[in-house]
Amino acid sequence: MPKTVGIVVFPGTNCEFDVAEAVEKVGGKYKFIFHSQTDLTDVDSIVIAGGFAHGDYLRPGAIARFSPIMEAVEEFAQSQKTVVGICNGFQVLTEAGLLPGALQKNAGLTFLCQSAVLNVTSTNTPFTSKLKLNSKVKLYINHFSGNYTCNDQTLNELKKNDRIILTYENNPNGSTENIAGICNENRNIIGLMPHPERAISDFLDSRDGLNFFNSLIQ
Q: What's the rounded Cα separation, in Å, for the pair 4 and 31?
């Protein structure tokens, strides 16, 4: 039976249909879950899609973290099921305290919308298991606050425990240690700024995103 991915939608989310297409391309099913809902019993994993939740007022993800769905997402993750936050979803996960660190404004205070080459630095997560360790993938970024930052203790823990999953080949936004994606200690909560769901066809000159969703489904 195909696995079902729950795609969380906040007011301002704009990448939910891209994620849905990616899930279907690898043989999965999807279900949109509005931020006011709390029932996650019929989904196998969760993706918090990109966009501008609640208009990114205050800080990106700062309002979304208080939505009813986030308490359900935390309980879902505590049962060792997979939660993935992409771009704005990554910001929401850090604001909710489900991932360490924070996403601040890009170096140069410039909105970035471009391709990016990423180094795969860990395949030991449910979202990167089908990737090849130390390989390079071409994805796309679309953010103003993608500059990942954390204190030295957190950085040391991330590095020591293989929790940095993606790094930028050429850092576009000033992120600490070129970090583009991380996971939690239990490896089932994953956050990344690049959009794998936008690299699933030759139309955009990259299909490298498909293996992320293959990992999630299989």
A: 7
Residue 87 designated active-site: yes
pLDDT tens profile 149-192: 999 999 999 999 999 999 999 999 999 999 999 999 999 999 99
Evaluate whether 88 touches 49 at the Cβ level (below 8 Å). Answer: yes
Choice among 95, 150, 183, 197 that is catalytic: 197
Active-site residue flag, 185: no
Could you say which of 3.40.50.880, 3.40.190.10, 3.40.50.300, 3.30.830.10 is the CATH number of the domain covering 4-217? 3.40.50.880
Tell me the whole-structure pTM to 2 decimals: 0.95
The conformation of residue 26, written as its DSSP 8-state character, comes to T
- Note the pLDDT tens digit of each residue in 69-87: 999 999 999 999 999 999 9
Selected catalytic residue, list 35, 54, 87, 150? 87
